[in-house]
Amino acid sequence: MSNHPIIDNFMISKRRMASFYYLVVGGLLSLLFAGSGIAETVPAMANLQKQIQQVAQSATAATVALVSDGGETGSGVIVSPQGLILTAAHVVGGDEMMRVVFSDGRVMKGRVLGANFTRDAAMVQILGEGTYPHVELGESDALHVGDFVVALGHSKGFDPERRAPIRMGRLCTDGKQRFLISECTLIGGDSGGPLFDLSGKLVGIHSSIGPMLKINNHVPVSVFRHDWEKLLSGRQWGQLGLHPMADPDSPVLGFAMMDVMGVDGVVVEDVVVDSPADEAGIRPGDVITYMDSRGLRSVRDMLRELGRHRPGETVPLVVLRKGTAYKADLTFGRRGDLMSGLKQMEQPQG
After folding, report:
1. Cβ–Cβ contacts within 10 Å for residue 113, how many?
2. Do residues 162 and 217 lie in contact, with contact meaning Cβ atoms separated by under 8 Å?
3. DSSP sequence for 123-173
4. Are 148 and 118 in contact (CB under 8 A)?
5. In the chain, N or C terminus with fewer CB closer than 10 Å?
6. Does residue 200 register a pLDDT over 60?
7. pLDDT-based confidence at residue 108 (cuts at 50, 70, 90)
8. Stronger pLDDT, 223 or 34, i.e. the higher one
9. The pLDDT value given to residue 38
10. Which residue has the higher pLDDT, 310 or 22?
11. Residue 30 — pLDDT band, cuts 50, 70, 90?
């Protein structure tokens, strides 16, 4: 026994661990295809299921739980046979050491190396010689909106009666954005866990839960590649708390949006003064049904479209107002510029 109640509980039932890591394969596939509007064939669905199963088989053993001395839990993924782990910076926080829990219940110590808190990227090194199960790094820059991805993580912490659950979804942004956004459902404990493409290569690390349960944010693996030597050397820098949706270089519309049952489109809840939406004539209560010739039925669709564009681009919209449809051109703004303007407006005038 480890004299640590959380770890001891991990070990008690490790023999009862079930291999149900095909958690979402099957029924969820039909739901995804039904909602996507894509006419997928049965062979295509079977091939997708096979790809997800292969990812699960190759990646589950390398997906670990990370436990701090205070008992907080997150996830990570081993990327080298020597035991180097990639995780999220907010998972390691200010800790110097973490407990690393493997899928079979084994527990080892890990030393926190470097961390880029602004981008939420960190490394942990397992202490102890050996050859560890690991995954291969992919190329996040090559990802496109709509690509299928697979997420693993120890949801709600390590559970000795199951392996890390598998979730799948589509990307809402391409790989060149500052953060990836996907539809994979994530909850507490998944932070720091891996995001894979369908070839089983690591393309991202779970960062934070978005405004909806199925819209979540991931650190692209390109961030780790760029900062690799600094992270390995143990350097820590940046400011934790820069939410991916607050990326200053991301495109912005300038209105609050919501889904309304029975309405096919994105309902405008409020509009920021002097924002791109305001300049395009968008008003609260409007329903946006098309952007750049693509149909919009929900907020999720709108987030996907945002991921296709950059600040400064102009796109045509179809807007429904009091039953009448009209067209409007909207030029995307830069989020940092809009937020800076809002802060200036909030300052007291002398």
Report:
1. 19
2. no
3. EEEE-S-S------B--GGG--TT-EEEEE--TTS--TTB-PPEEEEEBSB
4. no
5. C
6. yes
7. very high
8. 223
9. 44
10. 310
11. very low
Q: Output the CA angle 55-232-245, nearest 5 degrees.
A: 65
Which residues are CB-neighbours of 27 under 8 A, at least 6 positions away? none
- The helix (H) or strand (E) run that includes residue 113 is strand 107-116
Global pTM value: 0.64
Q: Give the span between the Cα atoms of 223 and 230, in whole angstroms.
A: 11
Check if the beta carbon of residue 243 is closer than 8 Å to that of residue 215: no
From residue 136, alpha-carbon distances to 139, 176, 232 in Å are 10, 20, 17
Q: Is the pLDDT of residue 80 over 90?
A: yes
pLDDT in tens, 276-305: 999 999 999 999 999 999 999 877 678 778
How many alpha carbons fall within 13 Å on the CB side of residue 150? 31
Q: Which domains are delineated in the chain?
A: 1-239 (2.40.10.120), 251-339 (2.30.42.10)
Q: How confident is the model at residue 261 (pLDDT cuts 50, 70, 90)?
A: confident
- Judged by DSSP in three states, 82 sits in coil
CA–CA dist 59, 279 (Å, integer)? 48
CA distance 227 to 295: 39
Q: CA–CA separation, 173 vs 330, rounded Å?
A: 19
Secondary structure in 3-state letters for 274-317: CCHHHHCCCCCCCEEEEECCEECCCHHHHHHHHECCCCCCEEEE
Asked if 180 contacts 140 with a C-beta cutoff of 8 angstroms, the reply is: yes
Site of tokens 């996507």:
36
CA nearest neighbour of 218 among 163, 175, 166, 156:
175
- The values of phi and psi at residue 323, to 5°, are 85, -5
Alpha carbons 261 and 123: distance in angstroms, whole number: 43
Are 295 and 303 in contact by the 8 Å Cβ rule? The answer is no
AA letter at 330: L
For residue 214, what pLDDT band results from cuts at 50, 70 and 90? Answer: low
At residue 48, the pLDDT reads 82
